[in-house]
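User: Please fill in residues for this 337-position structure.
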């Protein structure tokens, strides 16, 4: 295809004047020598009223020191310069015409390209500033961020217990199942602590269910501070909780369980001018290759928990193949119950 050269200056002028990009050209003294229709439309100032005037005299809000340095650099180096809206949201305070509800986008966001232009007659270097309207892109990114925030909130609601803000049973069981599969495949180990609050029904009966809720929240908050980031702590039932401890053997888990038991024994829940004290009973189990599945492992922890209850409560019981070993006293470093 043969291309017809455009040698009509007026035609070129009309094209540049009507593109959907802001175009202004400044001489060496920063006087405006070109102001296209995009700039007219969004500034409300006609080209005839602006051409020949100093840009900074008209747009006094412009960052003069920064922009003068930018223009000087482009003229001196004679190379393009680019400023993204992510660095500076806008150069000119142009209002956008988008219907963006709930968004804090007051002005049109702009990408700005600074282009050196040589005057063939005088040899003077002008600077052409091209303004690209990026408001739609910004609005889209805001919408993506908003959707991501909503998804994170939904994920949090899905995986967490509403009352205590720790993980819920479904999420904890998923993590145990994954950890169990990993241990089966790679020979790694992990342990579980299953515990519940002793005589929790008496708390509800004596002080009311709101008091019971306060105890549950306080219990979760107290224990959460003692765990590692890799540990998974969740509410397993009404007053029952479960802790998944990756890469942790039975002895270390029992030691932690005693520390948790002691912290709850010392915990006080203040509710409606009442101080409520509770204890917990705990069951501890470590992964073994002979365990059929993760549900069996939870069941063994539950058996150990039952033995703690039968042994007088406020105790830790280890589940072993040879039978349950009830730790009636605290481990070294901790006082007896």
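Assistant: Residues filled in for all 337 positions:
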């Amino acid at each position: 295809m043969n291309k017809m050269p455009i040698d009509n200056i007026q035609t070129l002028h009309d094209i540049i004047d009507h593109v959907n990009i802001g175009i202004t050209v400044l001489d060496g003294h920063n006087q405006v020598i070109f102001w296209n229709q995009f700039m007219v439309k969004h500034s409300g100032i006609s080209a005839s009223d602006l051409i020949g005037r100093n840009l900074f005299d008209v747009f006094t809000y412009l960052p003069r020191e920064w922009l003068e340095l930018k223009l000087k650099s482009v003229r001196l180096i004679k190379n393009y310069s680019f400023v993204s809206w992510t660095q500076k949201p806008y150069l000119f305070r142009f209002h956008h015409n988008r219907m963006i509800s709930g968004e804090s986008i007051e002005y049109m966001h702009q990408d700005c390209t600074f282009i050196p232009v040589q005057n063939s007659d005088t040899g003077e270097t002008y600077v052409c500033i091209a303004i690209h309207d990026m408001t739609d892109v910004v609005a889209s990114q805001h919408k993506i961020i908003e959707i991501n925030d909503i998804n994170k909130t939904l994920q949090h609601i899905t995986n967490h217990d509403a009352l205590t803000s720790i993980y819920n049973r479904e999420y904890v069981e998923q993590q145990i199942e994954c950890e169990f599969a990993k241990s089966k495949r790679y020979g790694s180990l992990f342990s579980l602590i299953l515990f519940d609050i002793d005589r929790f029904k008496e708390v509800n009966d004596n002080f009311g269910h709101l008091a019971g809720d306060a105890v549950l929240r306080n219990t979760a908050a107290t224990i959460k501070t003692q765990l590692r980031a890799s540990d998974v702590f969740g509410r397993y039932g009404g007053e029952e909780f479960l802790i998944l401890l990756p890469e942790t053997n039975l002895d270390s888990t029992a030691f932690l369980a005693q520390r948790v038991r002691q912290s709850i024994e010392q915990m006080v829940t203040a509710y409606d001018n009442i101080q409520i004290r509770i204890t917990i009973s705990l069951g501890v189990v470590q992964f073994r290759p002979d365990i059929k599945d993760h549900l069996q492992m939870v069941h063994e922890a539950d058996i150990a928990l039952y033995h703690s209850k039968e042994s007088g409560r406020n105790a830790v019981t280890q589940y072993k193949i040879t039978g349950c070993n009830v730790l009636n006293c605290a481990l070294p470093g901790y006082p007896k119950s």
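For context: The chain is about 40% helix and 20% strand.
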